Amino acid sequence: MWATAVGVARVRALESERENALFRDPLARAFAAAGGLWPSSPPLPGDEAARLRRLAVSFSIVIRTKFLDDLLLRASASGIRQVVLLGAGMDSRAYRMDWPVGTRLFEVDTAPPLDFKASVLRQEGAVARCERITVAVDLREDWPGALAAAGHDPAVPTVWIAEGLLIYLPEDAVDLLMARTGAQPAPGSRMGLTLGSRGVIERFGADAVQGSAASMWVSEMPDDPVGWLAGHGWEASCHTLRERAAAYGRPISTPPRREERPGGLISAVRR
Questions:
Q1: CA–CA dist 126, 1 (Å, integer)
Q2: pLDDT of res. 169
């Protein structure tokens, strides 16, 4: 599954080249190139509907990246100095964002993507703008224990990020992940999540090419994400892709779908 993170890097690289880019990710191109997705593009399917679905997925990656960037900036401004990226993939926020002194950023993922990423970072001579700590562990295993062993302090407020992750996990694994995160006691902690919109698997995954990202999607958002997260100790706010896209100056021109409510971009606070 980690190879899909290289595809996400390619989307971020293309966005970074726009004059009015919502973010700049100078390492994204290197990740995409090392993964074989740059400079040539994979051929687009002849099916116009498939092409439009591909564009929609790319658009959602851009909007969610900006949404979580803003959430992290607010968390830092509030004084939080611990960041945990669950399923970090090719995330380069440790290198591309301005972090306050004392920030510790933990990247949790399995060894293969972390090793691939390390080779690209060495090649690029990349220097992190905060203390970056990698934690090689499968999220189906005891990742809280591995995180604590790497130096994370559960008693100190943390901002947790799960970007483009939960849609690949079955519902029981999603609940376990949220239960483990909710078990971290520090009040004032924050969380940013992306959840698969209602109906997204039917629209994107039904005829997805085997091995593509959409073919591995298995989990959509619960009917009441606010209530669901409250059960795990989080006070959440939900936003739709459409709402955030309009706020960022990238309005969606197509009519809204009924299943777009309540929204798959989540910000939450631990009270």
A1: 25
A2: 86
